[in-house]
Design a protein that fits this description.
Elements (H helix, E strand, L loop, with lengths): L4 E3 L6 E4 L4 E5 L5 E6 L4 E2 L4 E3 L4 E8 L6 E8 L6 E6 L15 E2 L5 E4 L3 E5 L5 E6 L5
Antiparallel strand pairs: 1-2, 2-3, 3-4, 5-7, 6-7, 7-8, 8-9, 10-11, 11-12, 12-13
Keywords: Membrane, Transmembrane, Transmembrane helix
């Protein structure tokens, strides 16, 4: 299965972000439940699904300004019109680094990611919980 697909094992719904950045959600009968844009000027289609709350966490790069800024966004996908819950912007240590890992999420909704210099956790309200340095700048 492509990394751009996620399946909600509680509802059997499938979520997908395609090359057009359109988020689709459909059930096992093929009924379209969501067909919305997530961000109009971005790069990045990978995401993680919080199965308990029907929330997706999606890292992306804003392509409206140079340099492209990295953002992690959370969306409520439990209803037909997706809703932005929060945006998280990188800490100063990783602002210039767009080489981020795919997000992981735990049962409490805390998101875990890493860059070349840090591993970090983002709370389910979009604030940094903790960071740990992986490598020094030198």
């Amino acid at each position: 299965m492509s990394r751009h697909y996620r399946c909600d094992i509680n509802t059997d719904d499938i979520l997908w972000i395609g090359g057009d950045r359109n988020l689709l959600k459909f059930n096992h009968n093929g009924q379209n439940l969501i067909n919305n844009y997530t961000q109009p000027n971005d790069a990045g289609r990978d995401f993680v699904l919080d199965k308990q709350k029907q929330v997706i966490i999606r890292p992306w790069q804003s392509m409206t300004d140079l340099p492209w800024k990295y953002v992690v966004s959370s969306y409520d996908v439990s209803i037909r019109e997706i809703t932005l819950r929060w945006n998280w912007h990188p800490l100063s240590l990783i602002v210039a680094n767009d080489d981020m890992t795919t997000p992981s999420i735990d049962d409490k909704g805390i998101v875990y990611m890493s860059s070349m210099s840090l591993v970090f956790a983002i709370a389910n309200v979009g604030i940094t919980v903790w960071t740990s340095e992986l490598a020094t700048p030198s």
